[in-house]
Amino acid sequence: MADDYMVGLKLQAGTEILMIKAEDALIAALKAKHEYPEAVIRYVRRANRRGDRRHPHGGLPEKVKE
């Protein structure tokens, strides 16, 4: 049973917010860190369904989601 999580990253060029489908917050953070090893993870939280639909964020490439 996977939920959507938002992961906030700090990159050298700025910040990035990703939407990741994962079983829990730790797995979502590890998926983000795997894709962006140089990034600092600032937060991981369960996605706000109503607000996130209005302001969608980027996701990870398909190769990492599974």
Please, could you describe this protein's structure?
This protein has 66 residues and is an alpha+beta fold. The chain has 3 helices and 4 strands. A 4-stranded mixed β-sheet has the order 3-1-2-4, with helices on one face. Strand 1 and strand 2 form a beta hairpin. The chain is globular and about 30 Å long.
Secondary structure layout:
Elements: E1 3-11, E2 14-22, H1 25-35, E3 40-46, H2 49-54, E4 58-59, H3 62-65
Parallel strand pairs: 2-4
Antiparallel strand pairs: 1-2, 1-3
For the CA atoms, what is the radius of gyration? 11 Å
Strand-and-helix sequence, N→C? EEHEHEH
Query: Overall pLDDT, averaged?
Result: 84
Question: What is the overall shape?
Answer: globular
Quick take:
This protein is an alpha+beta fold and 66 residues long. The protein has helices spanning 25-35, 49-54, 62-65, and strands at residues 3-11, 14-22, 40-46, 58-59.
List keywords for this structure.
66 residues, alpha+beta, four-stranded mixed sheet, 3 helices, 32% helix
